[in-house]
Amino acid sequence: MILGLGNPLRGDDGVGPQVIEALNQCGLPEGVTALDGGTGGLDLLHVLEGWEQAIIIDAADVRCEPGQFVRFTLDEARFVGSEDTMSLHNAGLAEALALADAVGQPLPDLVIFGVQPERIGWGEGLSGVVKATLPALVDAVIAEITRLRET
Questions:
Q1: What CATH number is associated with residue 57?
Q2: Is-contact 110 73, C-beta < 8 A?
Q3: Is residue 140 within a helix (H) or strand (E), and if so which, with residue range?
Q4: pLDDT for 61-89, tens place per residue?
Q5: Nearest CA-CA partner of 81 in 111, 103, 58, 60
Q6: N or C end: fewer C-beta atoms under 10 angstroms in the chain?
Q7: Do residues 111 and 75 touch, judged by C-beta distance below 8 A?
Q8: For residue 98, what pLDDT band results from cuts at 50, 70 and 90?
Q9: Structural domain of residue 101, as residue ranges?
């Protein structure tokens, strides 16, 4: 499962859905599903349920220059400052992961690509710097799919 999170009406927060659109256009291997998870919230737990592996793409404060992205695992994500800074949504990825941990819900093996936004606010479309990183981000996700399928 590849899950793109974000709201395309809020600037760079729409990077996740943009990556999903690009992946669906280039075609994915059999058995790989790409889904626009929107702003997700706690419903992410239901979306992730039953999958063995998942890749999540989301705008996040990863303490980099705008447009840069960072790949990390669920275990590494827990080391990032306060969990509420991991996602830019009110009840988003960090909260869903914390809830899964609290109730003992098993999660798939997760790989997360956090993309540093330049601007988050009302307005459609990605900033130029985040839009320019899309090809490299899509390539990184495809490489991750290949790596996961080989393990």
A1: 3.40.50.1450
A2: yes
A3: helix 128-150
A4: 899 999 999 999 877 765 344 444 444 44
A5: 60
A6: C
A7: no
A8: confident
A9: 2-150
* Distance between CA atoms of residues 93 and 5, nearest Å: 9
Q: For residue 75, what are its two tokens?
A: 């275990």
Measured on CA atoms in the order 81, 44, 66, 119, is the torsion positive or negative? negative
Count up the domains in the chain and report the number: 1
Helix (H) or strand (E) holding 53: strand 53-59
Enter the tokens of residue 81.
């400052």
Collapsing DSSP to helix, strand or coil, 65 comes out as: coil
Q: Could you tell me if 51 and 108 are in contact, meaning their C-beta atoms sit under 8 angstroms apart? A: yes
pTM of the entire structure? 0.84
Token duo for residue 62: 């990863």
Report yes or no: 15 and 69 within 8 Å, Cβ to Cβ: no
Instruction: State how far the Cα of 62 lies from the Cα of 127, in Å rounded to an integer.
Output: 17
Residue pair 20/4 in contact by the 8 Å Cβ criterion: yes
> What is the reported pLDDT for 35?
94
